[in-house]
Amino acid sequence: MLLWLVELADELQVFNLFRYITFRTGAALFTSATIVFLFGPAIIASLRVRQGKGQPIRADGPQTHFKKAGTPTMGGIMILAGIVGSSLLWADLSNIYVVATLLVTLGFGAIGFYDDYLKVTKQTDKGFSGKARLGLEFVIAGIATYFMMRAAVSSGVAGSELGTSIAFPFVKGFVLDLGIFFVLFGGFVIVGAGNAVNLTDGLDGLATVPVMISAASFGIIAYLAGNAVFANYLQIHFVPGTGELAVILGAVIGAGLGFLWFNAPPAAIFMGDTGSLALGGLIGTVAVATKHEVVMAIIGGLFVIETLSVIIQVGSFKLTGKRVFLMAPIHHHFEKKGWTESQVVIRFWIIAVILALVGLSTLKLR
Length: 366
Prior knowledge:
By secondary structure, the protein is mainly alpha-helical. The protein has helices spanning about 20-50, 75-90, 95-120, 130-155, 180-200, 210-225, 230-235, 245-265, 270-290, 295-300, 300-320, 330-335, 340-360; strands at about 165, 175. The protein contains 13 helices and two strands; from the N terminus they run ααααββααααααααα. Strands 1-2 form a two-stranded antiparallel ribbon. The protein is globular and about 55 Å long. It starts with 20 loop residues before the first helix and ends in a 5-residue tail after the last helix. The model has no long low-confidence stretch (mean pLDDT about 90).
């Protein structure tokens, strides 16, 4: 929205700053953090009054969780307000990748909000129908993927056929062209990312910081992939327009910092599905846009581990009647083994940092 101020650069040189993605990314970070800090207390107070008993606590969960009873959920509203409000101010709203990313973020956020609403009103940990929820997520993700794919294909840039292809790290120049079926692949990546972050969001701050780490990593990737000079130097695929996604990812970091202030133990608010689904979907959309879907599995490796632990647990129980973990997702397993919540959270943060650094190393190892 504020990008039009560039037109005034001839009259006042300071407005020339608005041309630069780096400046607008920093401004978006500061703006989103400010929005969450300013409006967070009022949102928390309102949710506490409206929700009464707050988020239901799983009866089979660790005993330490029962002291969190009464804590309101749907804190993702704060995060979405920061991200969307800041993005509307600082991002280029004519950019198809920006529009697609905001579409997924708001769409997944709405699905998560409805899921949280059902859980709170019915006081159960069972919310929206799983099949219906996944169906809606795939529709939203598929639409976003299609338009991003068409934008890449019609860009006119050499190698624009990459819009329907999967790129692989460590292997220079090799891509797998899926054609129209890339819509299904992109949809799967986005939906998978959304639900992976959702599964990880089980402890105070556990999902928030890894999401911020992923956002910072993909902010770097988006900026480089959207710049022809840097992309050529690093021998990664140049995708025109994706650099603008760094602005949205800056807003994610700012909103995450603001939310973490209220979510730090003991949490005054939980993110809920409203936030976790939206944030995961956002990261997945950026990965699809920048052609770094495979790298996302490395940078977001913590989310992959959490998801695999659930798949393994469910599969093992159905096939053999035995459980592999004391409880899934895996962060609950370590709680059951005697780790304190802070030990689990901080150690998982460390893992997220290491995996992000490994993922970023793929930019040069070609």
